[in-house]
């Protein structure tokens, strides 16, 4: 341990080689406005505005009288076509008897009595489904059909509007019936997955007890009031009641860059909702928590990987930091760019930049002297180099809105793609970097990039803690990158990096404060109190609920008296934030974990059981409920649940790992070993599974096999401290001092200030 006490002095030089109980934690799940099946599928059985809750909304036609130009532009937009009742004008697919077949079913699209149908013929026979709504406009259109208990489901067979063909959204093998990713499954239920971003004033009205929706909306598509707020009071103002200084509108997206970004981010982001019905005009972070630059979503330099929409990219950009907003480039009503080709960029990036953006270097940007490509050909357009595209849903290219300067010189360090070799696929990044030096000279700015620290942190390599801590405190860098660095510090907390986390708790940006609160979960609950408690009163809801979650394991008595009331309020907000997505089993899993930490076993078990009632195949809830039963001494119930998980999902690594641990506790080691081995093989990305398997081998006296397992795992996870420490212990017990010195050197490179490691090095002596 570190010699001096500190909330961040938490690392042991030599972690004990013990098999710990499995805990599955899925704190954050997020969704975007629309997109690929893994990111944001759809579906719904909604009704138009039929309840009093929509009474403040009016028909969008009412706006046309005073705002004709905006209304006419909106009628041409994708927002207008976001969702429509099917008719000759709205349906783009071939419903003239066209057929499509995948591995599981045959689909036939046809019309009858003026309505649109799809017949699905598979193992259960042929079933006709009437199309209730169209979904989207181009480059593809999906179709919504009725499911059970008020749901609408989005067909995964979609219409390619460019090629004029039916196609399957699945890149590879389509999911079979019964799978959550099949079009009848929960991942394609519109009511939750993207309803709120394709209609106006969407209210899901989900009843968790009945697992049923009574979803309603004010207007079927994304209309004027989706961005400006309900219009009835504004109509009264426009008709002569001019008392309201805000003109009767709840939202004013054009009044500031923050207001506009918050308005657009509600749908143009990868995020999770924390309230049931977001309030138009309210701060984005009071109703949603956006994803940071996670490895599955973004490359390490922040370029888009999965479909993340625009917010997470745009807030990385210099444009954002300079005050540029969405409407500087896009007509907010039609959604189209203000100009064609390079003209939208050269409106500012030219020889005489506008005074508003005086930092722009005066140049002729739309010229081969700048882009070094033939005018009008690929490479000569600004977006080719500064906004490269990735294709989602097989036919939908989306441009990266981080508006970055190409940096092929960073590719080797970050592993991220670069725009140059994205086109010149027969060349490598070194070639591209050399061309840039040739064109712009060796003095071209090559300042350090936050992607280098994030790439280092993802690997967990030596020096990553210091690099992440430096990025966390660098206020010249994008807040989303700094927040990502702070969250990654959870793996690197010590006396050197701890102050960066403490400083992040007081950061002006709420994303950074949230990330710091999550990082506190790496320290003992009691040590979190003084750090997290002040944020229970944070002005931003997403920060308050994160503080409440960080303090879940802390009793009220352990909190300062002046913080207890705030803790109660923030805790209630946290529970409500999970129930805002009550139809999702992940929410109830999160609540089960929360109540277990609070010591309320009854509520914890109820939450896990709700998750399993909604999704009987949800393995994480099954395993955590089993762990709860074990903690209560109910070993028979624990065994039954874990064996049920294995039977339900025999190819699920978590289920096999949990069963292996159960067999260890039962003293059935011979049965445990193959289960743990299978789990490690099925999930090679899990260092923990590999570690437990190797420890099990060693505990059964198979030292050589354990050593081989550690070495194999370290090839994939070379900087995993637990693997290195366990291997070191094995080498010391085997009196293999040379190998132990080598392993110890690797540990010291990762934990250079660990006094225990230093003492051990002195004991082992030189080679």
UniProtKB/TrEMBL annotation:
SMART domains: TPR (SM00028)
Domain Cytochrome c-552/4: 62-86, 188-229
InterPro entries for this protein: ARM-like (IPR011989), Cyt_c-552/4 (IPR023155), Multihaem_cyt_sf (IPR036280), Multiheme_Cytochr_ET (IPR051829), Paired_CXXCH_1 (IPR010177), TPR-like_helical_dom_sf (IPR011990), TPR_rpt (IPR019734)
Presence of the UniProt keyword Membrane in the record: no
Database matches in Gene3D superfamilies: Flavocytochrome C3, Chain A, Leucine-rich Repeat Variant, Tetratricopeptide repeat domain
Record keywords: Signal, TPR repeat
Source organism superkingdom: Bacteria
Entries under PROSITE patterns matching the protein: TPR
SUPFAM superfamilies: Multiheme cytochromes, TPR-like
Gene Ontology molecular function: oxidoreductase activity
Domain Doubled CXXCH motif: 326-352
The TPR repeat ranges on this chain: 585-618
Pfam families noted in UniProt: Cytochrome_C554, HEAT_2, Paired_CXXCH_1, TPR_19, TPR_8
UniProt KW Isomerase keyword: no
Protein name per the record: Putative CXXCH cytochrome family protein
């Amino acid at each position: 341990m570190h010699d001096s006490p500190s909330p961040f002095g938490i690392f042991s030089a030599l972690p004990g080689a013990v098999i710990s109980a499995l805990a599955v934690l899925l704190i954050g799940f997020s969704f975007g406005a629309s997109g690929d099946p893994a990111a944001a599928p759809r579906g719904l059985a909604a009704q138009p505005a039929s309840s009093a809750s929509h009474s403040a909304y009016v028909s969008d036609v009412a706006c046309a009288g005073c705002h004709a130009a905006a209304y006419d532009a909106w009628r041409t937009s994708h927002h207008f076509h976001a969702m429509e009742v099917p008719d000759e004008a709205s349906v783009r697919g071939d419903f003239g008897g066209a057929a499509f077949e995948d591995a599981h079913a045959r689909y036939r699209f046809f019309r009858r009595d003026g309505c649109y149908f799809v017949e699905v013929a598979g193992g259960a026979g042929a079933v006709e489904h009437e199309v209730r709504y169209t979904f989207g406009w181009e480059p593809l259109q999906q179709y919504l059909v009725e499911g059970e208990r008020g749901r609408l489901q989005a067909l995964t067979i979609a219409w390619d509007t460019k090629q004029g063909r039916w196609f399957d959204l699945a890149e590879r093998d389509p999911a079979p019936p019964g799978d959550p990713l099949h079009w009848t499954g929960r991942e394609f239920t519109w009511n939750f997955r993207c309803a709120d971003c394709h209609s106006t004033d969407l209210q899901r009205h989900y009843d968790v007890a009945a697992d049923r929706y009574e979803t309603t909306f004010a207007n079927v598509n994304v209309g004027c009031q989706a961005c400006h707020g309900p219009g009835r009071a504004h109509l009264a103002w426009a008709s002569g009641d001019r008392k309201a200084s805000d003109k009767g509108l709840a939202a004013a997206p054009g009044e500031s860059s923050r207001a506009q970004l918050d308005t657009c981010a509600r749908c143009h982001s990868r995020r999770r909702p924390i309230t049931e019905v977001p309030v138009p005009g309210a701060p984005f972070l009071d109703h949603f928590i956006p994803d940071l630059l996670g490895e599955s979503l973004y490359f390490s330099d922040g370029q888009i990987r999965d479909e993340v929409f625009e917010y997470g990219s745009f807030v990385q950009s210099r444009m954002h930091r300079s005050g540029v907003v969405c409407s500087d480039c896009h007509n907010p009503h039609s959604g189209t760019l203000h100009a064609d080709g390079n003209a939208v960029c050269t409106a500012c990036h030219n020889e005489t930049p506008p005074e508003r953006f005086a930092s722009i270097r005066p140049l002729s940007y739309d010229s081969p002297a700048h882009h070094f490509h033939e005018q009008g050909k690929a490479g000569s357009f600004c977006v080719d180099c500064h906004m490269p595209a990735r294709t989602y849903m097989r036919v939908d290219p989306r441009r990266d809105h981080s508006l970055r300067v190409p940096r092929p010189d960073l590719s080797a360090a970050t592993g991220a793609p670069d725009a140059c070799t994205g086109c010149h696929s027969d060349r490598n990044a070194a070639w591209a970097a050399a061309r840039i030096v040739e064109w712009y000279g060796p003095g071209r700015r090559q300042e350090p990039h936050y992607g280098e620290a994030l790439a280092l942190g993802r690997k967990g390599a030596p020096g990553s803690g210091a690099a992440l801590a430096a990025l966390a405190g660098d206020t010249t860098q994008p807040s989303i990158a700094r927040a990502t660095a702070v969250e990654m510090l959870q793996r690197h907390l010590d006396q050197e990096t701890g102050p960066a986390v403490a400083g992040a708790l007081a950061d002006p940006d709420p994303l950074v404060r949230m990330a710091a609160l999550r990082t506190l979960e790496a320290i003992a609950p009691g040590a979190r109190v003084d750090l997290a408690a002040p944020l229970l009163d944070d002005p931003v809801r997403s920060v308050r609920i994160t503080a409440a979650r960080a303090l879940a394991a802390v009793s009220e008595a352990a909190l300062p008296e002046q913080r207890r009331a705030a803790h109660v309020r923030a805790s209630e907000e946290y529970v409500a934030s999970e129930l805002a997505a009550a139809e999702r089993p992940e929410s109830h899993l999160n609540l089960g974990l929360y109540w277990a930490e609070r010591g309320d076993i009854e509520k914890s078990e109820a939450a896990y059981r709700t998750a399993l009632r909604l999704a009987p195949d949800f393995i994480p809830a099954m395993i955590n409920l089993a762990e709860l039963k074990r903690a209560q001494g109910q070993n028979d119930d624990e065994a039954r649940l874990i064996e049920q998980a294995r039977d339900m999902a025999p190819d699920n690594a978590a289920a096999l790992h949990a069963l292996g641990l159960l067999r260890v506790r039962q003293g059935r080691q011979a049965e445990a070993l193959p289960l743990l081995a299978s789990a490690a093989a099925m999930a090679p990305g899990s260092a923990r599974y590999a570690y437990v398997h190797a420890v099990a081998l060693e505990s059964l006296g198979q030292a050589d096999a354990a050593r081989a397992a550690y070495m194999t795992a370290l090839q994939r996870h070379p900087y995993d401290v637990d693997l290195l420490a366990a291997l070191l212990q094995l080498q010391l017990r085997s009196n293999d001092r040379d190998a132990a010195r080598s392993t110890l050197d690797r540990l010291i490179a990762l934990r250079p200030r660990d006094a225990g490691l230093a003492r051990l090095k002195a004991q082992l002596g030189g080679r």
